[in-house]
Input
Amino acid sequence: MTPSPARPPRRLHPFAVRLMHWINAVSVLMLIFSGWKIYDDYPILSWLRFDDAITLGGHPETALQWHFFAMWPLALNGLVYLAYGIASGRFVRRFLPIRIGDVVATLRDTLHLRLGHDDLFHYNGVQKLLYVGVIAVVILQVLTGLAIWKPVQFSEVVGIFGSFQTARWLHFAGMVAISGFVVVHVALALAVPKTLLAMITGGPLEPATIPVETMRANPMSMNPTSEHR
Ligand code: HEM
Output
């Protein structure tokens, strides 16, 4: 009898993760750019305006429609991603544990321009912190969004934040945090293009799920850098 793996071969980023990641990326970008147009109509900081060239919607009313359209895929896709990440164990496998020592060591390496990402199966301390952080901020963003969208119907949610104005400020602060994340995240993806390719194609097979017979016939089917993990 031919030996078989404990579970079917799985890629670094299974199809479901890639699909959810890209739906999320497009929704978040649509929300940010339409949000900037909505903000311009009713600014929070007197000195801050967003140029029309970098906003989505053209008119505040149209921007609102884009915003209300994109919030559904973000919220629904986000819920499925959370359920999938928890149920499949992906969150624990990829994002935990987060050790302060690892975060400091990664920051030190980055400052010395030693930004390696040889083992795609292993996120470094900063990546783990950023991914868990951005997931938490997006959850908060959906909640503050609900609070300022329908403050009467979601008065309990407004209550969590204290007031409508606090929710509005936190929604703005969440936008700043997510925009900052996107800038760093996209810059790193472009700096290490194999990570971007893997988020499109799925990347290499997880070593633990490669059938023994495939490994014997084609040892390169394994990620060469993750075999000792
Ligand atoms: C449009 C621009 C984006 C690009 C090009 C991009 C690219 C990537 C790439 C290449 C990875 C894999 C990183 C690695 O293996 O080291 C990744 C993972 C991830 N990205 Fe993005 N991303 C984008 C937007 C976003 C946005 C807007 C968010 C959230 C607000 C986000 C959240 C995440 C998360 C949480 C992961 C980890 C996924 C997991 O392993 O389950 N990304 N992204």
Summary: The longest helix spans residues 60-87.
